[in-house]
Structure of Metal-dependent hydrolase:
Amino acid sequence: MTDLVVRRLLVDMEAPIERHWCDGDPFRTALFDALSMSFPVGEQFFIDSVRNGHRALPADKQEPLRAGVQGFIGQEATHRRLHALYNAQLDKLGLVNEWAPRAQQRLKLLEGADPRHPVAITAANEHFTAILADWLLHNADVLGTRDPRLVTLWLWHSAEESEHKAIAFDVYQALGGNHEWRITWFRRITTVFLGDLLRQTVCNLRRDGSLWKWRTWKSAAQHLFGKRGFVRQTYRPWREYLRPDFHPNQQDSSASARWLQEHSDAFTPVGSPA
Ligand SMILES: [Fe+2]
Ligand SMILES: [Fe+2]
């Protein structure tokens, strides 16, 4: 594969965010804001897991993965930095991030575990983010047009998630991780991730005063279960992870390459970190 490029996004994430920045729609806004709240903690965990997993490999297995791992770390570090700025604006709107401290508590349970476990958890999350990313790149209109800066941020993040989706998986395979644990963690992560996402979305809507509005639920039904809805469109790619011969690169990522090519004015490449 081609080397992963680390890109500096040319957006000002320190400017205020409008309360319902996503098309004036409280549900979509709350959902994307909830996702953003999970990233600084989650992506730091992914970085640490992949770095430690890579270090645990014998030298001959480290070498072919080195550039990919460095690119992965650089991309995730950039994501978490920008989402931390985004989240700081959400704090100013009175939203409360309950997901991050809960995730941090849970991660303590993994201290001292075999490095294959955190890498399997990362690979499972990366599959999740990759299918979410691909869905978003194909349905970019769900982000609305009110805040072009956030549209760019979400699509850039999606494009890079799609781009580096195989790295954690490849480290897991190189570590000799087995199929059973890969699937066990994937099922657990699916439950935990969807549960956390739902809880934080509801929390955001409650603080926002939009939880019990009819339009909120109508939008939720449409964007999750409608024809172009997330659940309906991602169930099949989600399930493919369960196959013993699955590899992330079997899933199409042309939407990512296209977006990066068409929006090269939105970022400057800074190369891979040393
Ligand atoms: Fe990311
Ligand atoms: Fe990622």
Q: What stands out?
A: The radius of gyration is 18 Å. The first strand starts at residue 7 and ends at 9. The chain has one domain: 24-100+107-266. The chain has ten helices and two strands.
